[in-house]
Amino acid sequence: MSDYTIITIARQYGSGGLKVAKRLAEELGVNCYDNELFAAVSKRVAIPDGFAGADSKRENLINAAKHNYNGEVLPSESDDFDSMEKLFKYQSSIIEEIAEKESCVIVGRCANYILGDKPNVIRVFIYAPMDFKIKRKSLVHDEMSEKQLENHINRIDSHRASYYKYYTGCEWTDATNYDIVLDCSKMGIQNCIDTIKEFIAIKKKYHN
């Protein structure tokens, strides 16, 4: 087993999963890769700033790739970079490269699937009930009503689920795709972090 430990964190929108990921990375003293992954893609294929987050919308992916490709990766005569499949492959290669070089936390991007065959990867899914997610997101979107927030949360999670299904053929919320599934509303941010750290220690002990 590699000395590196990779934690992939998939999370429902508003569940607190991103905060868990960032604080976990801080406590472990490792990098947390979220939008940074797309910054890396940008350097390779000239995806413009602000592209991060558009990966759940097929038309945005296709148009961004088509209109901003400058031949850095594919030959300049290539005419098929306007497929989200190619962009996903480049993103996957970046995830795999990162996993070969350092311990880290990787948020979303189907990383649990991409790295699923590696023994040093711990796959986490964080979720929460709707009322908890609405309460958390109301602090950010105080202009929205509860119903608007619920629709907003459902729309984003639907995009994430569709994105995951499209590339992996699996259900995003299926617990069998993960090593740990945590309800952040019942455990809280710090307890989620501590549980993941305990699992890391157990797994290392088991494999040593």
Given as residue ranges, the uncertain stretches (5+ residues, pLDDT < 50) are: 53-82
User: What is the CA-based Rg, rounded?
Assistant: 18 Å
Task: Determine the structural class based on helices, strands and strand pairing.
Answer: alpha/beta
Largest sheet: 5 strands, parallel
How do the helices and strands line up, and which of them pair or pack?
Elements: E1 6-11, H1 17-28, E2 31-33, H2 36-45, H3 58-68, H4 84-101, E3 104-107, H5 111-114, E4 121-127, H6 130-138, H7 146-168, E5 180-183, H8 184-207
Parallel strand pairs: 1-3, 1-4, 2-3, 4-5
Helix pairs in contact: 1-8, 2-4, 6-7
Folded structure, characterized:
There is one protein chain. By secondary structure, the chain is α/β, with parallel strands linked by helices. The chain has one domain: Rossmann fold (3-Layer(aba) Sandwich), CATH 3.40.50. It contains 8 helices and 5 strands. A 5-stranded parallel β-sheet has the order 2-3-1-4-5, with helices on both faces. It is globular, with a radius of gyration of 18 Å. The chain starts with 5 loop residues before the first strand and ends with a helix. Residues 53-82 have low confidence and may be disordered.
